[in-house]
Amino acid sequence: MTPEENKRLEFFEKSAQKHPRKGWLNGYYWRDITFFCNYFSHEEISVLEIGCGTGELIGKIKGKRKVGVDFSPAMIENGKKQFPDVEFHCMNADDIQLNEKFDLIVLSNLVGHLDDVEKVFLGLNKLCHPGTKIVVSYYNYFWEPILKLAEALGLKSQPYRQNWLTLRDINNLLYISGFDVYRNVRRMLFPVYIPLLSEFFNGFLAKMPFFRYFCINQFAFAKPLPEITEEEADKKYSVSIVIPARNESGNIENAITRLPKFSKHLEIIFIEGNSTDDTWDKIQEIQKKYSATHDIKIDKQKGKGKGDAVRLGFDIASSDILMILDADLTVPPEDLPKFYKAISSGKGDFINGSRLVYPMEKEAMRFLNLLGNKFFSLAFTWLLEQPFKDTLCGTKVIFKKDYQRLIENRKFFGDFDPFGDFDLIFGAHKLNLKIIEIPIRYRDRTYGSTNISRFKHGFLLLRMCAFAARKIKFV
Length: 475
Known about the structure:
alpha/beta, Rossmann fold, Spore Coat Polysaccharide Biosynthesis Protein SpsA, Chain A, 2 domains, 7-stranded mixed beta sheet, 16 helices, 19% strand
């Protein structure tokens, strides 16, 4: 080590003995960071924390494999005693010698102490696979004078040397280091625990527009920028398209004839949903008619609702990527290759269609439906901490491996959504997937009428939003 590095190490080890992550101020503050990182971790993933100290965060986070890295031998030894299920390594953050890739990498309040943040971020690339998620937490720049006062009063340990980076600085450093920042979150207005007062400020006020910009903690969520080209991705994955159909007899053949060829292999799955017309007969007829040119599977749902039909179709599906296409064909089948290119090239992990970007055909969506969709767009933008225009577009795309994880994680939200849209969106958010939207042109129906009741189903959707707020926002 250089003299400067020895001096830094001595400072941090003394500081850790004097100001451990516990106590009236620090304990409450660090528990919230640990809780929030744990919210996006899961039992089946591997987790790495860089700058783990004595392991208070990595020791309490969920994961099948947990690894902590810190440059302090004394902290590492302390961590090994407290958290035997964590594998600790004594290494510098800018020179991590681990020959494995992790599902989740956490850097909690570390960037302020680094000599070269970009160098550390660049080094993360060798620890990442295409689906790795990075979580970087750091202080809000607005809090600098308040934290300096806390240091002077002995309520917070004094830093060796502090980089005061804005959230924009961190996002930019991640981007130039090869990472795509897909979400920013702010938490905690009042970092001292006082019963009732802390709950009000941090549990409610910190979630509201305007107030959230003054929160002390800022989080950047990122994933590696895609390296695969669209040409390479075009033949990499197979696709299963699930088409729920209830009273859609006149659209069944068009769903086949209008569907372009794309992906390594295309599997089409019709799920008939208790129709009162001849939809089931038509599905059987079309399966036989196109059996020589198309891989078509069919089934009848035993339950009710589109959500139940989609789950049945996804269970039957055998491909790498799962898609939903509504049988009314108001989302054109010709647009599905756009969704495939977005997910196969790594631009997103969960792809949602958006009907509210381009002008619609005159009869495509009734006025009250449009108002409802606009409302839910604003609600979801607030709930998910990212712009979200169209929650109810029927076309959604996800990797099957991620959907299988979503099934395991469904117990967190429960079986609350008969439509399936919210179940998939909330599930993708909880899995820390990057969610993106693909604008499509929403067309008039050419056959049949909508199965959606504006008022009955509208109130049900409102109840589901309130339920999700408790599970996603107010945590």
